[in-house]
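Field log, afternoon session.

UNIT: design team B
ACTIVITY: writing a sequence onto a fixed backbone
BACKBONE:
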């Protein structure tokens, strides 16, 4: 008899869209005939908290305690009646159920305001006179964050909107503090969490519960769920996996965690989960488990049946978002930046173009782990099949491809397949700033619905790029960002400071390069991360290569990932953090790109050593001559032209001329050429269409041209007609 499965995502990940682990696993297990249910306890808990009933309990708890509160919390508590009056309207607005309160939300007298409102940006500049809905969404987000501050002060310091008890999970070499915290009485937030979980267990009566733990901020809540299930329904078996497990628990030897779960799996969960189910059916023994930890006689044992190949992306099935409360996710605007808002605003269906990273060589990355090193791409027809299935299921046309680095070739085929099938979506993904993202490819991606790309600019230094084995340089990164931005695709840059041997001079120069990227409109958003060595990276495994040393590797039987490194050749990296973050925050709001870099720091910093026009000079370098790209395929992304007779008497021009008239989405234009070339071009356009699965190459077009005409093809590629077509939508891909 098949077992019933309940998959849960514990608090908290994103508030605007489901985390994709359980939909992926559900889609796969359904292919194998299992009854699978799923629950996002994070979004359910947020909706429980942010309701009139939830607020009543929250404020009652705050008022009936002897605890001393901050001035900000007292400010909120004393405005209780206004929070009770507004919370349901705010939540309906953030869920897109009712947009009519927008005007009132923007007024100065409707929402109660605490410290999050104390330093508002210039809302008129940020949103203009017509951006009422976005302005209201921004203010409603501040309202939500104010209450989050109260919860941290009055209920539990563990609270956070994209994490819960994150500090317990971060660098947790010993399990003892987590174990001790789990024995404490439940807070109000945890009591609500358990109530929600209890409802799902009673409704579905599962035999197996799967808990995804993607981040440190999900660990405590995930184990709290396991604790409840173990206590109330010990017959239910519990399987845990996810990103945190995959990076932190690969050397797990702590048996105490198995008081809360029965199985812990590594890497992709489909095969390990399937083998666990076979094990529970009695069809496999322990040796048949795949990448799975279990406890046997108070010892942790790892089993990995490595017989057979891994699943290809085509074999994992389509993610299944059914039974998730898609109408209860919140669209928030945390800062007034159109690129940055994508992480918190909008319901994005999450898919992957490929498993792993096709480059997998960056020295700071977890390149020894499966989710990075094993690369396998999903065929474009399969991927678009899934896109159509997910759209039909969710009613949403937005997609976030959550790749480590989406391959340019795969994105090209995806875009062509979307255009062939006339599937209209909006999508964004993570990429590497490499030369393959030409101006033509970026225009193709935009035509297929790409609205944004994110990528690593890291330390913005060619020397450090080389040391990182990044495989790109600053000049090409600037050109790629230009190609995306000119195609109308927004760009976010991940930035890094503190890489081994990075000097203060290089840090200051990096900020100058970033300033230039913003000033020239090449990126719209960015964020600095402090470098941390990990046990799975080349820096962690070979520190001598990077002129640093690793302090004693962490002892303990639980989590092992982050390493403490010493960098004698570098500088005091932390001293730069505030200035770096302040500068980029302002750049994202269009402020300060003309200021000198030294203005962002309250201590003396070196003068920049890079040229102030470095980026401008890089992006002025034009693309290669089309005649050097004969292997490229020719694609026309607009409507087919109409051929019309040309009357030279009216125009005062002698000779046999013809007209090709084009009607695009935004304009119409006419191409006048001699009759023979006009007829040849008109006959060629069907062969340039995205509907043609065998697009003509430029080499084939050259041969066909030279058969018909006496003039060299190179001269045609330099003609006004060709240049016009290239400008209007003829791409070489």
């Amino acid at each position: 008899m098949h077992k019933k499965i309940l998959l849960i995502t514990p608090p908290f990940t994103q508030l605007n869209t489901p985390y994709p682990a359980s939909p992926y696993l559900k889609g796969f297990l359904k292919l194998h005939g299992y009854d699978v249910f799923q629950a996002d306890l994070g979004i359910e808990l947020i909706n429980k908290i942010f309701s009139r009933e939830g607020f009543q309990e929250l404020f009652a708890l705050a008022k009936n305690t002897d605890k001393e509160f901050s001035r900000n919390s007292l400010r909120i508590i004393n405005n209780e009646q206004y929070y009770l009056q507004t919370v349901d309207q705010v939540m309906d607005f953030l869920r897109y159920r009712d947009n009519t309160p927008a005007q009132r939300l923007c007024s100065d007298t409707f929402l109660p305001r605490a410290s999050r409102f104390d330093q508002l940006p210039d809302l008129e500049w940020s949103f203009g006179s017509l951006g009422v809905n976005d302005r209201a969404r921004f203010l409603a987000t501040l309202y939500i964050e104010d209450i989050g501050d109260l919860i941290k002060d009055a209920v539990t310091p563990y609270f956070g909107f994209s994490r819960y008890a994150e500090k317990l999970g971060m660098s947790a070499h010993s399990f003892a503090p987590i174990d001790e915290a789990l024995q404490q009485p439940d807070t109000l937030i945890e009591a609500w969490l358990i109530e929600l979980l209890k409802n799902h267990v009673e409704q579905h009566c599962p035999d197996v519960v799967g808990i995804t733990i993607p981040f440190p901020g999900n660990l405590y809540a995930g184990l709290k769920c396991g604790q409840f299930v173990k206590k109330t329904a010990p017959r239910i078996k519990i399987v845990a996996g996810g990103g945190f497990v995959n990076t932190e628990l690969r050397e797990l030897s702590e048996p105490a965690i198995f008081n809360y779960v029965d199985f812990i799996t590594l890497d992709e969960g489909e095969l390990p989960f399937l083998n666990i189910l076979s094990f529970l059916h009695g069809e496999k023994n322990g040796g048949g488990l795949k990448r799975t930890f279990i406890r046997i006689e108070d010892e942790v044992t790892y089993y990995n049946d490595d017989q057979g190949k891994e699943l290809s992306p085509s074999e994992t099935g389509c993610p299944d978002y059914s039974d998730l409360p898609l109408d209860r996710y919140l669209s928030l605007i945390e800062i007034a930046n159109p690129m940055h808002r994508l992480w918190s605003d909008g319901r994005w269906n999450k898919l992957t173009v490929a498993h792993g990273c096709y480059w997998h060589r960056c020295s700071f990355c977890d390149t020894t782990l499966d989710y990075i090193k094993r690369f396998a791409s999903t065929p474009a027809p399969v991927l678009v099949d899934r896109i159509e299935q997910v759209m039909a299921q969710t009613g949403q046309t937005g997609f976030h491809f959550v790749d480590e680095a989406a391959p340019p070739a795969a994105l090209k085929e995806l875009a062509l397949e979307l255009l062939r099938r006339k599937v209209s979506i909006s999508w964004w993904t993570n990429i590497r700033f490499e030369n393959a993202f030409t101006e033509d490819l970026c225009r193709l991606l935009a035509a297929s619905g790409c609205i944004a790309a994110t990528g690593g600019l890291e330390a913005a230094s060619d020397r450090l790029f080389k040391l990182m084995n990044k495989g790109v340089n600053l000049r090409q990164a600037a050109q790629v960002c230009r190609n995306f931005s000119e195609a109308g695709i927004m760009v976010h840059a991940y930035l890094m400071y503190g890489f081994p041997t990075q000097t203060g001079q290089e840090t200051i120069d990096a900020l100058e390069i970033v300033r230039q990227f913003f000033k020239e409109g090449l990126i719209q958003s960015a964020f600095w991360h402090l470098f941390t060595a990990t046990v799975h990276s080349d820096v962690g495994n070979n520190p001598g290569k990077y002129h640093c040393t690793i302090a004693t590797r962490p002892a303990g039987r639980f989590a092992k990932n982050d390493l403490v490194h010493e960098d004698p050749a570098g500088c005091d990296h932390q001293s730069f953090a505030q200035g770096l973050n302040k500068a980029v925050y302002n750049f994202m709001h269009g402020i300060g790109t003309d200021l000198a870099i030294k203005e962002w720091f309250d201590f003396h910093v070196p003068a920049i050593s890079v040229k102030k026009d470095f980026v401008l000079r890089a992006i002025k370098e034009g693309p290669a001559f089309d005649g050097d790209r004969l292997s490229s395929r020719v694609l026309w992304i607009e409507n087919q032209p109409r051929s019309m007779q040309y009357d030279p008497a009216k125009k005062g021009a002698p000779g046999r001329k013809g007209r090709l008239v084009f009607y695009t989405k935004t304009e119409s234009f006419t191409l006048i050429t001699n009759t023979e070339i006009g007829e040849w071009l008109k006959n060629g356009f069907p062969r340039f269409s995205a509907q043609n699965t065998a697009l003509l190459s430029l080499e084939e077009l050259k041969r066909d041209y030279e058969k018909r005409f006496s003039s060299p093809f190179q001269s045609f590629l330099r003609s006004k007609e060709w240049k016009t077509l290239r400008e209007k939508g003829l791409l070489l891909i």
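LOG NOTE: The longest helix spans residues 132-154.
NEXT ACTIVITY: expression trials, pending approval
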